[in-house]
């Protein structure tokens, strides 16, 4: 049935995946290389254009708000993985007649979400040991020799963790339903 609690969890997973495309994954703060204000760059699943507070012809007068300063090679892997997790959650909502298949599909979605989280935290944000990813690309641009501050407490990094928890709760609810149906079949 579509009105079961696992369907609600799976709808929340789909909404969470959609929200991941709206928010930045991480914010990088570079010490000011033009003036006293720090430079902020955001890593997100989709490319964003430059955003400035004013359009001035002098580089010293431009107030920078945020953008993707460098392009992360292989960002499409994160985007495709997130889209596939969303599609799996959406498809599994309509597999309510076959609970065993629904459990397997939700488990595959959860496994792919774990892969997404691994790629996100160990490859995209910091790179493995600082030897890859967006942070390394920023450091290679040689804006400054000072350290770059990384803020990972953004909705773009919290949402995949929440979707993983919701996928787990959906799987648990599907399993409870299957146990109830088997017990009812035994009584007949």
* Succession of helices and strands: HEEEEHHHEH
**What is the domain total for the residues?**
1
Report the radius of gyration as a whole number of Å: 21 Å
**Straight-line N-to-C gap:** 21 Å
E-strand count:
5
Number of helices: 5
Q: Which class do the helix and strand fractions yield? A: mainly alpha
Strand order of the largest sheet: 2-1-5
Helix content: 40-55%
Strand percentage: 5-15%
Query: What is the averaged pLDDT score?
Result: 77
Low-confidence stretches: 50-67
Question: Tell me, what's the shape?
Answer: elongated
The main β sheet shows up as:
3 strands, antiparallel
Multimeric status of the protein: single chain
How would you explain this protein's 3D organization?
Helix 1 packs antiparallel against helix 5 and helix 3 runs antiparallel to helix 5 (155-187). This protein has one domain. It starts with a helix and ends with a helix. It has a 3-stranded antiparallel sheet with strand order 2-1-5, with no helix packed on it. Strands 3-4 form a two-stranded antiparallel ribbon. It is elongated, with a radius of gyration of 21 Å. The chain is built from 5 helices and 5 strands; from the N terminus they run H-E-E-E-E-H-H-H-E-H. The protein has 188 residues and is mainly alpha-helical.
What key phrases describe this protein's structure?
single chain; 188 residues; mainly alpha; 3-stranded antiparallel β-sheet; two-stranded antiparallel sheet; 5 helices; 5 strands; 10% strand
């Amino acid at each position: 049935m579509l009105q079961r609690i696992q369907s609600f969890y799976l709808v929340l997973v789909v909404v969470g995946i959609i929200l991941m495309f709206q928010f930045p994954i991480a914010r990088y703060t570079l010490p000011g290389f033009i003036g006293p204000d720090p430079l902020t760059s955001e890593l997100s699943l989709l490319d964003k254009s430059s955003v400035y507070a004013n359009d001035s012809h002098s580089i010293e007068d431009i107030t920078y708000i945020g953008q993707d300063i460098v392009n992360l090679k292989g960002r499409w892997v994160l985007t495709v993985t997130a889209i596939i997790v969303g599609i799996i959650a959406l498809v599994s909502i309509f597999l309510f007649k076959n609970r065993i298949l629904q459990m397997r599909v939700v488990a595959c979605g959860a496994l792919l979400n774990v892969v997404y989280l691994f790629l996100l935290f160990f490859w995209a944000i910091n790179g493995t040991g600082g030897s890859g990813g967006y942070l390394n690309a920023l450091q290679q641009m040689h804006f400054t020799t000072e350290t770059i501050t990384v803020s990972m407490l953004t909705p773009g990094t919290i949402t995949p963790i929440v979707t993983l928890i919701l996928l787990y709760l959906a799987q648990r609810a599907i399993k409870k339903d299957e146990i109830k149906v088997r017990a009812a079949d035994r009584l007949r």
